[in-house]
Every structure is written in structure tokens, then in C-alpha cells.
């Protein structure tokens, strides 16, 4: 059990000594028992110095450092998305990932006029990303389908970046909503047409789940529907049933939130300046410095054999190996 106590890392080992007087059968204390141990004998469980030093190096400067990893950018996007992000700013992460990791099937929802976020009601808004999310979005080269309704101005347009980011975000949100159970009543049919379902059904038949009932009979169909429901709940969707999908959450927010386009337009007239994204450009000197720091962080090897490791020897050995005769019995090893 690992605890952060008074700013330091403590580890309570699952060994016997601490159990004296507790008469516990469990290998670890309960949380109240562990807290009692820490409050009275915390010095005994203090983690080793190298462990604490590594931890402090990772968290040094936080939480203040979090602000430095954020990036605020102007996006010309549908008013519905602006309203959703005002209530749940963290949904921008799911939208960026949906766009960044899209596949041809996902883009099916984007090859027609958008159902949830049409291009007609767009507003300028300031969106907060993490630097990673912003880089993923801005570096993607993507041309929207003409049928979607989204068009981009010329790259020389002063607001080109805002249009581009907004278009990509809109695609991410539309993909999320298209996967929602609220707008995809045929989701069950799609899941039950895959190879996983076929193997599951074959397994049920082999185990005589249908008890000899004729295929298509009332009893057979009843058992089949039970199997489908079980597959949907426990096999096809292993995630927690309590977890709401981002698409469902977005649609719920849209249904319960009033969207005032005029208000967004008034706010757009006095938006604060967006952040400078020059951090995206890394100079050769900065890259060398990063590599140098990474090398310094890696621990030097103490193994003498490892220190004598010679890449040229390895290369010669590899050449010798591939030049030897091989057959169905394997290759001759160049000892």
C-alpha cells in the first residue's frame, strides 16, 4: 500500500512485523489501520531516497506547471459545441481523440450534412486545449467532404487557423455523437454481425444452449434474445455500465442547455487574445538540449559486459548469420 503523507512517499509492505498486535489474517492493513500506522510510525515506512527523488523530479513545479501545458486558441465552431464546452471543457479531449484516431467508418457520419452540429450556426470561441491535444489537432492535414457543409477559406485568410480548428473539432464531436446509443438504434445489430458474435453463438450451440430447439421456433428465439442481451452487456461492452459515453453526454447537454447564438456573437466581438503557438517549432539546438537532458536522466550501466557492448561486432555477427545456409531445419548458427 502506497501513501503520500505530509508531502512524502510512504510504502507499507505486506510483511509480518507491522501486524504485531493487529491479529490480521489479511496480508495488508485496511485503510483506517494504514492511516493509524502512518500517524504513529510514519518514519518506518518512508520510501527509499532514490524513489522519493524520482517522484519529486516528476512532480516538481506542479500544480502551477499545469497552466504552462495549456493552450488557448480561437476556433470557429458550431454554437452547440461552444455551449457544450462551456459546461464541460474536458470534452474537448474526447473530440480531439475521436478526430485524431478516426477510421473510414467514423467518417461515414461526416460525408453528409451534419445532423448534430450543422455548419450553418458557427461562432468564434476561445477553446482551451492541452498542448498535446492542440498539436494533434493542428498538425493533421484534413480536407472536409463537400457534403458536410464545412468549407475552409484560403490559407492566406487571417482566420484560416480558427476555421480549420473549428472544422476539425466539429468532425470530432459529430463522430462522438454518431456513436451514441441515442442516435444509433442499429448499434445492436452492428455488434451482433461481427466475428466475435459468430464465435459466441457457435460456442453456445456446441454447448447445447438451445436444448435441441428448432431454429426459428418461439423458444429458440427467446433463448437467442437472451443470449444477445448477455453478449451486449458483458461481452461486446466490457466497460463499466455506469460509464457514460462522451457522445451520450454531449447529446444530454444539448437537450438540457439553451443555446443563445446572439450571446456567443457578442462575446466573440471581445474575445481575449489566443496563445502563441511558437512552442510547436523546435530548433535543432533545443532538440539537442532535450536529448542531452534525456541522456543525463538515464542511469549508466554498471555491468562490465554491457559496457563492452560493441555495435560493430553485433553488425558483423548479423551479416554472418544471414549469409549462412538455412533450410526447413533452421539456420546454421555462426558460432
Give a brief rundown of this model.
This is ECD protein. The protein has 335 residues and is mostly helical.
Overall 3D geometry?
Answer: extended
**Helix and strand element order:** EEHHHEHHEHHHHHHHHHHEE
Helicity, as a percent range? 40-55%
Number of domains: 3
Provide structural commentary.
This is ECD protein. InterPro entries: Ecd. The protein has 3 domains: 2-59, no CATH class; 70-180 and 245-269, no CATH class; 186-235, no CATH class. Helix 7 (160-178) packs across helix 11. Helix content is 47%, strand content 9%. With 335 residues, the chain is mainly α. The radius of gyration is 29 Å and the shape is extended. It has helices at 31-41, 49-59, 64-68, 79-87, 91-100, 131-138, 160-178, 187-191, 195-206, 218-235, 246-256, 261-268, 284-297, 304-307, 311-323, and strands at 2-5, 8-11, 70-78, 122-130, 326-327, 330-331. The protein starts with a strand and ends with a strand. Strand 1 and strand 2 form a beta hairpin. It is built from 15 helices and 6 strands. The strands form 3 sheets. A two-stranded antiparallel sheet has the order 1-2.
